[in-house]
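Hi D.,

Good news: the full-assembly prediction came through. Inputs first.
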Amino acid sequence: MRRWRQLLKRLPVHLVVITLAAIWLTPSLGLLVSSFRPRQDLLASGWWTALGRPFATQWTLANYRQVLLREGMGRAFLNSFIITVPTTLITLGIAALAAYALAWMNFRGRQLLLMTVIGLIVIPLQMTLIPVLRMFNALKLSGTFPGVWLAHTGYGLPLMIYLLRNFFGALPRELFESAFIDGASPFTAFLRLVLPLSVPVLASAAIFQFLWVWNDLLVSLVYLGGFARVAPLTVQLSNLVGSRGQDWHLLTAAAFVSMIVPMIVFFSLQRYFVRGILAGALKG
Amino acid sequence: MNMGRVHWLYLAPALLMLGLFLIYPTAETVRLSFYGPRSDVFVGFQNYVQAFTSQPMLIAFRNNLLWLVVFTLFTVGMGLLLAVLLDRVRYETVIKSVIFLPMAISYVAAGVIWRFVYTFRPAVAPQIGLLNAIVVALGGNPIGWLIERPWVNNLALIAVGVWVWTGFCMVILSAAYKGIPKEMLEAARIDGANEWQVFLHVTIPFLKSTLAVVTTTMIVFVLKVFDIVYVMTNGAYDTDVIANRMYNEMFYFYNYGLASAIAVILFLAIIPFLVINVRRFRAQEAVR
Amino acid sequence: MVKRLAVGLLLVGLVAGLAQGAVTIMVLWSGAELEAFQKVTAAFQAKTGITVRVESVGRELPGILATRLAAGNPPDLAAMPNPGQMAEFVARGALIPVGGIVDLTQFPKAFVDLATVDGKVYGIFISADLKSLVWYNPDALYAEGLAPAHTWNELLYITETLAARGKTPWAVGLESGAASGWPGTDWIEDIMLRTAGPELYDKWVNHEIPWTHPAVKRAFELFGAIVRNEAYVYGGTTGALSINFGDSPAVLWDKPAGAYLHRQATFIKSFIAGAHPELDLDRDVAFFVFPPIDPKWGTPLLGAGDLISAFRDTLEVRSFLQYLASPEAQGIWCGALGKLATNVNVDPGIYPDKLTAEAAEILKGAEIFRFDASDLMPAAVGSGAFWKGVLDYVSGVPLDRVLADIEAAARAAYGP
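Then the structure:
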């Protein structure tokens, strides 16, 4: 009886959450269903009608076959990892160090520096392409992976510093004071206190930096070039569709293929989103 | 903490990267904004005059304002709602993944997805767009969602933006919400506060700084938003936004002067929000 | 025999040894077009030993190419988005003249002129598309007791007759993502050629007459008389504006037919085949030439083409340009894609189907040929204000305001 009342009380929460999730899922579901339908069907009837008559519908794996069996897909996956993984690690490392200094060290010009960093989030990266490429040409970095790592790091840093600075800044002062009394150096405090306590925000920052770099097309095209040898997944997939948009239906399957990895990253970092990390540390 | 010059060691890598990839190019952008399309003739403030007076730009300013209000409100609001509510259900991970999913989709694919939602077909033909199928099933006439100006089409585009970015707000706000010590919430409940009061008096104050960060980030993205508009309408039917004008001027019309001026305007537009942020940081540091 | 083979191999080896180099080319092609182009480069490589590195950057080519150029590392060659942007690169001093490299007598004069800036030729057209075509489904049209139109009045007669019978005469699709509006500019250009003549058309392209000129206005109005009429177009104006150009012709082959006529270039064939794989293209799909309007100007043809220019003058680049211009390369390229060859020595036997061969024949016989005007104008007009203007006009904005808006953009783009 009491359990029922409890359930009834919680019903609105379930209702809101599930409704929102259903609304969010519907467009993607449409894409998923469409990715298993032949092109002529996409134009002839709505995707939901296929769900209504699952046996009359001409389901097909042809879209996926065309995407996955395309020449150079393996190489493209590999290239995407070569670009994305180091970039994410470098960005987070540099951003965490800077955010720590901005949050917990006193020095002149700190607020101005912080303001500049946040202001830089708004810089459209398109405006940086020519000067940066010119620099890369002089340094022989254009067409190389390190060049792309550095560029993505530069573009991702402001937002990452901002996110981390906010979280680091919210840590309680007593934490540091007791650590310093115990004789810890600032760097030890950073490694032993700040990083472990910031795992949830580091995880979310990592997810976003990872997926933005993973989904990038423009930066790769400009600094690496569109050659098959270095092209990441996004470049390969955009080459699927003819220049007049022929075969756009292949994008349905391509979208899911390129989405798999960011979703795996999201799932695997989920376990760091847990309550109580901070609470535990405070007690100890 | 005051410890001499050691802070520069922590900041040096970031400053080097920011300097090379953002600050130096920005200085170059400011310079080019005073030059003609091919960056060879000095034109003074002419690009700025054009940016503030031409009809397409004025429409873009208006639309960015609409985006600013509607997009920010919905992404942050729904992100917060989800962060708080999902903490109470056992299937949190599943729902979170569903809301996060659109973030993992490239904008080209997002264009295809929303094609299946907004597509128009005449009343005589079977509808292949979801929204018009619903409208027709309810006895209405199909609507050109991306055509009808000024409200329907702009809101239709903003809806796509909300769909993509709510996941970002949710993830960040949820990470912060998980930082609220359980004891704090329990204590308030034991004191007899109902859920709404707990939300107002415990959750909101605790999340204030993260909310500010997420809101600022969304405002910045509104100023930069262009990919959704670019793939779906490219600004036709009065749906243009500032960043899309910049992209077109730079990448298709080769007018580097005007594109640079628009970029500088974007940078100036963010300054009020920076000031608010820094004030808030000062306040935070004063009390911790 | 063996000896000759050995000598031949030796020669090939020698040539390959001499030309160890490589060329890079940036292209906007993807999908089937990219595959076809790679067949061309493979054949070139087999022949000369020169490696061709193809860089496909898709639709973003204008921006990426300009960025590379400004930063100082352009590719050796690139496919130009259109002649207007080629002229822009010439103005920046970036391209090399090809006159002394390629034998230009292999091409019709019209295509050489289109790549000429200030008396020098800066690019070669490796293929063309014919735009002045009206597609129809013969079974459906004949079932209505109607036949292809040879004059404007006949076209209007078909339109009105079908509408009077409660049927929709035209399928129009102006949606094309970021490039929406371009199919409408093709309509207006075709009409402009037929009502104002090629000389005024050229003046319009060069902005020597304003957009508010009565001739331009009339072309818009004739276009509007069909496309702005809710009863003449599949889905009315909202349909014309929202249906993707590639999807739009599909209804001609629906049962019953959703529409009867569709004005579009040769490349639409692959979209029709994609939407209706059951069709026999040679039997079920047909076109007639967009009919003349003012008899004085006859039946001029509108077209577009794929243009290649070079940023560096090396032996390898020269050799590759010569190859691209050759009937052999064009045979591979056009044969695979159903594009029309520009080299007059190409054997018509290469075309994959009857329709393409017919289009090639029509193009060859052109008395007056003009290139797609929007591709010749500065991008801010030709790929900007003109596209938007067409969409505004069809969506109900008064014509005078539309033309004034385009004129304002043109004044800024063409300069004083």
